[in-house]
Specification:
Length: 416
């Protein structure tokens, strides 16, 4: 599961580790008769999701072959074939495998992610404290080729890129950040959770990308909203206590990093949050406004109305042939496939996620919060980059969503 989730690009393997694991899982699944596959595919939400996926994939092929771009790119057709078809199929195969090994409850499935995140966190701390180990990981173990594999840029190498993964800058930190949320919600040992596990997992997220804090903030916002709406004093007290502990832990984390003299990485993390709205950075009197930069340098739209609605097939991220570049996922979608493509992708995922909410029982309140947190997190982080692809955060999301659907389908079938 570790290799599947994080997909490290191991140098001596012919393909990415996640691809190899996916192939082996599917091979085992179909060799055993593909149990529950027909039953799951008959689910109305999954069936409609796959139909929308077929439309999306067909649209990417049309844009690829009939656009005016001189340089033909199959990036989007491959990406969304994997997103709409390979990801769900591998997810179903994984769920059948882990259920076979007794992981048949929400808590047990969630703890798989928590355990994986904890293992990764120890690797992150080890590479953070040992530059020699980190150099071995990047230059001997992984395929680190600047400008090709896009593991991490040379300019960022001194600041971030700790652990063992194939995506240090976006999805991997998001996975760790969301795993920190799962620790708060599902880890039973209270003091050990607050003092050790939560800060460990959160640090592993933040030292790679500050976007990892987004799931934590969204989680607390959702919990606060639910508790204040219900006006249950006991739950509000629990929320305030948890918030207090988290704030104290953040202060301790800062002190921990300072004591270890990890100044470059620490300053980069703190300055990133200061720079969201502008302000003097740590160790410097200079100021920098991330919001202003994002709106000024990355927010623009196609000139023509037709291109704005239906796109032009133009890839504007990590494309050396494009004179227009943007990190914003929404803008990338509009330039490629227009509003039609943007709405199609977002609606497909939201339709599936909202559908699974209908299957969650009232007593499984925590799971409903987790699914809501996933849905809102995806909307927010798409401003930072394209989250709608086959990455570690989406693997987590789909395993949770499909497990909810599979659990409902199985219980409904058994009750007949």
């Amino acid at each position: 599961m570790f290799l599947y989730i994080y997909n490290p690009m191991i140098r001596f393997l012919p393909f990415d580790s996640g691809v190899i694991i996916s192939f082996l899982i599917l091979l085992f699944y179909f060799f055993n008769g593909a149990p529950n596959l027909k039953r799951i595919l008959k689910n109305k939400y999954i069936f409609i999701y796959l139909i929308l996926g077929l439309i999306t994939f067909s649209y990417t092929l049309i844009l690829t072959f009939f656009s005016d771009n001189e340089h033909l790119s199959f990036r989007f057709p491959i990406m969304y074939f994997r997103f709409f078809f390979e990801l769900p199929l591998v997810t179903i195969a994984i769920l059948n495998l882990i259920i076979k090994f007794g992981y048949n409850t929400y808590g047990k499935v969630i703890h798989i992610f928590i355990n994986i995140a904890i293992v990764q966190s120890f690797i992150v701390i080890a590479t953070l404290l040992s530059p020699a180990l980190r150099d071995f990981v990047f230059f001997n173990l992984l395929k680190f080729r600047e400008g090709h594999d896009k593991i991490i840029s040379i300019g960022d190498f001194s600041l971030r890129g700790f652990g063992l993964s194939g995506d240090y800058l976006f999805a991997f930190p998001l996975f760790q950040g969301f795993a920190a949320v799962l620790v708060l919600f599902f880890f039973k040992n209270g003091w050990f959770k607050y003092i050790f596990v939560f800060p460990l997992v959160l640090i592993s997220s933040l030292v790679n990308a500050r976007v990892g804090v987004v799931p934590v903030l969204i989680f607390f916002s959702i919990i606060a909203l639910f508790y204040f709406i219900s006006m249950q004093k006991s739950k509000i007290k629990i929320l305030l206590k948890n918030t207090f502990f988290v704030l104290i832990l953040l202060i301790l984390i800062i002190q921990f990093v300072q004591i270890l003299e990890l100044n470059n990485t620490f300053s980069w993390i703190v300055n990133g949050f200061i720079n969201i709205f502008g302000g003097n950075t740590v160790g410097s009197s200079s100021s920098y406004n991330i919001i202003e930069k994002l709106l000024g340098e990355h927010l623009f739209f196609p000139n023509g109305c037709f291109d704005f609605v239906f796109g032009s097939g133009q890839v504007i991220f990590s494309n050396p042939f494009s004179y227009i570049k943007s990190d914003i996922g929404y803008i990338q979608f509009i330039f490629y496939g227009g509003l039609f493509f943007l709405i199609l992708i977002i609606f497909s995922f939201k339709f599936l996620a909202i559908g699974c909410l209908n299957y969650i029982k009232k007593e499984d309140f925590k799971i409903k919060i987790i699914v809501l947190a996933i849905m809102i997190t995806v909307l927010f982080v798409h401003f930072k980059g394209n989250i709608y692809n086959y990455n570690s955060f989406m693997k987590l999301s789909y395993i949770i969503i499909f497990f909810i659907i599979l659990k409902f389908q199985t219980s409904s079938y058994s009750s007949r």
